[in-house]
């Protein structure tokens, strides 16, 4: 987006803490080629500004400011009809009146139920818990003379997701988790140990992986006790 001159409000909006803290509304019109009818167009997006570039200012000359934003919500309406509405945080994707993400939201209900049962964390613990999580195994793993009773999972970086589909990981797809978990676990689990893992332990670790990948704003909106 490019605006004429500069606007102090932009710099205030840069301080927004949430990923959907800034809402922008664009309006205009289009003319149909077949009928010549002029139709109103409205685009509403929510997100946060990523970069504000004022360029080089010269005295006595007009200037412009370029604003780059990252959006997690978009809704396009033409002539009063909603063509699409996408809400990444709430997993909503409505195209031509059809909610394409409804089944995916249903698959996340066990995750939400798990989250409701977690105690509220003290503020000084939250940052640490966002980067690693310890999972106590229902069925310990035997490795020679050593018995592994706990696995520490680190928050995965993008490289840990290579070879998988993010959507499949978020849906706790077993094959995807078998790939990702050994890359972020301490001690690092072997392919055979993953294959022999108690399904309950695989489920517990998979839930933590999904929680790692949720944006902070989504985590903040989840109910806690």
SSE arrangement:
Blueprint: E1 2-4, H1 8-13, E2 22-31, E3 38-53, E4 64-78, E5 81-87, E6 92-95, E7 98-99, H2 102-107, H3 109-116, H4 123-131, E8 132-143, E9 146-154, H5 166-170, H6 174-184, E10 185-186, H7 191-195, H8 199-213, H9 216-221
Antiparallel strand pairs: 1-4, 2-3, 3-4, 4-5, 5-6, 6-7, 8-9, 9-10
Short description:
The protein has 225 residues and is an alpha+beta fold. The chain folds into two domains: 101 residues, no CATH class; 113 residues, no CATH class. Helices cover 32% and strands 36% of the residues.
Note down, in words, how this protein is organized:
- The longest helix is centred in the last third of the chain and has 15 residues.
- With 225 residues, this protein is of the alpha+beta class.
- 32% of the residues lie in helices and 36% in strands.
- The two termini are 42 Å apart.
- The chain has 9 helices and 10 strands.
- About 3% of the residues have low confidence.
- It has 2 domains: 101 residues, no CATH class; 113 residues, no CATH class.
- Strands 1, 2, 3, 4, 5, 6 and 7 form a 7-stranded antiparallel β-sheet that branches.
- This is Phage major tail tube protein.
- It comes from Raoultella planticola.
- Pfam families: Phage_TAC_7, Phage_tube.
Shape: elongated
Task: Give the helix/strand class.
Answer: alpha+beta
Secondary structure tally, helices: 9
Parts with pLDDT < 50 across at least 5 consecutive residues: 123-128
Protein name: Phage major tail tube protein
InterPro entries: Phage_tail_E/E, Tail_tube
């Amino acid at each position: 987006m490019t605006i004429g001159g500069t606007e102090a409000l932009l710099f205030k909006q840069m301080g927004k803490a949430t990923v959907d803290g800034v809402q922008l509304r664009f309006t205009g019109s289009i003319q149909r080629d077949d009928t010549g009818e002029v139709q109103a167009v409205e685009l509403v997006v929510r997100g946060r500004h990523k970069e504000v570039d004022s360029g080089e200012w010269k005295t006595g000359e007009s200037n412009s400011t370029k604003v780059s934003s990252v959006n997690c919500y978009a809704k396009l309406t033409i002539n009063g009809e909603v063509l699409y509405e996408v809400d990444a945080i709430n997993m909503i994707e409505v195209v031509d009146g059809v909610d394409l993400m409804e089944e995916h939201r249903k698959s996340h209900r066990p995750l939400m139920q798990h989250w409701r049962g977690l105690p509220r964390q003290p503020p000084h613990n939250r940052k640490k818990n966002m980067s690693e999580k310890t999972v106590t195994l229902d069925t310990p793993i035997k490795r020679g003379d050593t018995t592994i009773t706990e696995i520490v999972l680190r928050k995965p970086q993008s490289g840990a997701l290579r070879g998988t589909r993010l959507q499949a990981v978020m849906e706790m797809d077993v094959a995807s988790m078998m790939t990702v978990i050994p890359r972020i676990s301490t001690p690092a689990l072997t392919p055979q140990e993953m294959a022999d893992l108690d399904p309950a332990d695989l489920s517990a670790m998979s839930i933590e992986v999904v929680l790692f990948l949720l944006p902070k704003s989504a985590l903040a909106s989840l109910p806690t006790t």
